[in-house]
Task: inverse folding
């Protein structure tokens, strides 16, 4: 009888463990998300061989050309999604590409490609969405190598509750710390970090200035203004750019984004 009791306890424990595992799996089940992507960067400047009529353009190194398409290799679930997700997603440079209705696990694997270049290499990169329902996935070149051999990825939470209208999210994808001033608020933002700024009330354009954070020899990357309406918010990206040699190899892009997702645009600054 004692041995039977032990067996019963073991069976009960196993059943309980199975239930716990099942519960955990249910928590990890795919959920529907409002996912958006943006590949940010600059195209390489053209170079030429020879002079005058005999000059010819030289193809740039492939690792300097930003990807233009994204494919979700694993982590998505189309079976119960409200819409069919395309296998290949076009992602024009510095333009937010919306992908609403993606039913996925917290971790997905992405493939970056350049379909117009037959010989161009592809890269695969892991992406952890965690519990974010409205993530913005920002993909940029490696800040150390300033190339696309090893792209980097940042996942931003852009839900209205944490990123409301009349705010600016500054994202530092570069390899250097930056000093950022937006409408009178000044912050030091380390490499890989981001911070939220509140715009001044009224209809005046948002004033912003971005400098490298050295105590001596600081370089001004931008000093300008940008007008936005009362229902919009701004995403200001600083990213590695080998073509910006006079500006610490760092460029900026402003993405204008509506709180209610619509077509988003990017403006070079």
Result:
């Amino acid at each position: 009888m004692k041995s039977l009791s032990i067996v019963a306890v073991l069976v009960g424990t196993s059943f309980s463990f199975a239930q716990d595992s099942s519960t955990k799996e249910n928590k990890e089940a795919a959920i529907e998300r409002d996912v958006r992507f943006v590949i940010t960067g600059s195209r390489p400047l053209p170079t030429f061989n020879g002079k005058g009529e005999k000059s010819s353009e030289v193809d740039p190194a492939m690792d300097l050309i930003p990807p233009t398409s994204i494919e979700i290799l694993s982590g998505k679930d189309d079976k119960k999604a409200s819409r069919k997700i395309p296998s290949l997603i076009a992602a024009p440079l510095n333009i937010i590409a919306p992908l609403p209705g993606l039913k996925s696990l917290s971790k997905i694997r992405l493939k970056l490609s350049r379909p117009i270049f037959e010989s161009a290499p592809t890269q695969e990169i892991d992406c952890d969405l965690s519990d974010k329902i409205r993530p913005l996935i920002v993909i940029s070149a490696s800040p150390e190598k300033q190339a696309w051999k090893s792209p980097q990825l940042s996942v931003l939470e852009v839900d209205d509750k944490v990123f409301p209208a009349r705010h600016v999210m500054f994202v530092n994808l570069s390899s250097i710390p930056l000093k950022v001033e937006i409408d009178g608020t000044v912050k030091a933002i380390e490499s890989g970090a981001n911070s939220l700024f509140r715009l001044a009330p009224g209809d005046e354009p948002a004033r912003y200035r971005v400098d490298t954070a050295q105590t001596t020899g600081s370089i001004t990357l931008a000093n300008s203004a940008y007008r936005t309406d009362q229902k919009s918010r701004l995403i200001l990206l600083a990213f590695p750019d080998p073509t910006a040699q006079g500006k610490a190899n760092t460029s900026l892009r402003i993405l204008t984004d509506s709180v209610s997702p619509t077509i988003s645009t990017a403006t070079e600054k």
Summary: The longest helix spans residues 2-27. Residues 179 and 256 are 21 Å apart (CA to CA). Residues 2-11, 13-26, 262-269 have pLDDT under 50 and may be disordered.
